[in-house]
Amino acid sequence: MSNIGSYEKRLENFDWSIAEKELDYTPGGNINIGWYCSDRICEMGKANKPALIWEGLGGIEKQYTFNDLRVKSNTIASYLKDLGIKNEDRVCLFMDKIPELYIGFVGILKLGAVAQPLFSAFGDESLHVRLDNAQTTAIITQRKHVSKVRKILDQMPYVKHIILVDYDGNKPLKEREISFNMDEAVPVEDFKSFPTKAESPSVLHYTSGTTGQPKGVKHVHYSLISQYLTTKWVLDLQENDIYWCTADPGWVTGTSYGIIGPWSLGITQCVLDTGFSAESWYKFIEKRKITMWYSAPTAIRSLMKAGNEIIKQYDLSSLRHLASVGEPLNAEAVIWSEKVFGKAFLDTYWQTETGSMMLTNYPDMKIKPGSMGKPFPGITATILDTKTFEPVNEVGKPGLIGFKPDWPAMMRTYWRNEETYQKKFENGWYLPGDRAYIDKEGYYWFIGRDDDVINTGGHLVSPFEVESALLEHEAVAESAVVAKPDEVNMEVVKAFVTLKPGFEADDDMELKIMNFIRKKLSPLAMPQEIEFRDSLPKTRSGKIMRRVLHAQEWGEEIGDISTLEDD
Amino acid sequence: MEDMKEMILEYVIEEYCDEENDDVTFDTPLISGGIVDSFSMVSLKRFLENKYKISIPDADATPEAFDTVNKIEVLVKKFQ
To answer: Yes or no: is domain A454-554 CATH 3.30.300.30?
Structure first.
């Protein structure tokens, strides 16, 4: 029997107070996610239950019980407090998927500070714009990533501390750097979690839009209510499950469902901190006896590409429930997983801003492969007309997805950017920026994005950010960046570039520009292809017409080009 | 063929490692070790193709084939 039971029945008289009661939360009282993920689970008698089973390269393993999680997060919170870090200060986690990242996240929240996880593959410029916007007080990082911080340190007077969790004493620490070893620190048995309230800020995740700099999505401690319940009902986590969320906590899935969801339910989770390979993933499932697996379409398609023969070498019979997030899961992948694992991956749709699942498939509901599923109970969803922003109320008619912004995990604002936040609403509906339609049985079907943002492997990349970075390359005169279709990643970044006089458009130049962007922004933002042109399509007023290039890439109609500049 | 391996290793260290993370050898796992991610693999593939004037089909450019400098050498020689 699944946790949700009948989806239809759950819709009747649904109220978020179901989760509040289960979590013993009284409206107006204290709610601290860090405490809920550690102390409360120990108080429930699960102190000795494994919370985290971590595996690194070469099979190195570390295990932490919920009591370890409680004490070590206390230790981190106490250490940060002694440094002078206060509630609502931003503390950045810039690390690989090591235990310090997961436990540090809990510790920061216990202190009442705001956790700001950033993807460890970010280059120095990507790092800088996000730290600058957040005015981050401290960065917790590793030796292998600290050089990127050092490069931009002069421009960040607000950063008071750079905390290295794996300092080995071989090279001297530099300006503002300090060493903290979580496993060797004197354990702090008692730490009183900061009395955060429902609206106290908790997590700051950054996401990219079509224009402007990345936006800091502000979440609050009350987000726990919907993260807890969606984890319970959709991921269906049960007492004896061994859970594996493959997402990196540098992105929202890795915190909402890679930390908060499972740990607030007292579930054992496993983390594999190595790069991707079909062999290592299957081996991990077999070895750890994973029962619930939450992954991403890109990974699933990569596994499909690796073939079915390899699967036969492993015992994957422990798997009982699978789900996917990041981008629409194509029907072929759903059908494939049913064939090879005996279970279909259930697609879940949500985004950084929504903080928790919005449209999803459910354990006991009929699956239509390729569909996004139906709204989670308590979520008011619709399809809006693209011009009037009124619900279309018509089966099969495409439009914009709209949500009534009244669920607990909805973002509260964009950090220091309220103006952009307000633009995300029309007629009282929150617009996530995707187009879809609803079929006659109420299932949602994804059509595409309503803007130029590139969804590559489930991560959003801003064409504006890449174009701006390209212009900083000495050879680039003009640039336009669009999505290019890709079998595995759904979309990848493609750049169209004109060069300044004296520079040659050849393979070496393409590679130089690719590496330039990879280091400056991130591997995700690196154009997988660069097309050199003599000129780029522009309007008569000189604005580059990105949509013309996008249409060419996707084999679509170019549309109205009456404003296109004559050659 | 030591030259080829040295050349690839040097490129990997130069492009994908930094001063705190440069103890890479011919057998260091690059992809499964998280030194080169799947997106960055495209730029490594492009380097090999430009440098050795070869074309590596996408079907052969797997994370396994790119996992160590030793394996990359085998891959390059296959298409030379």
So the answer is: yes
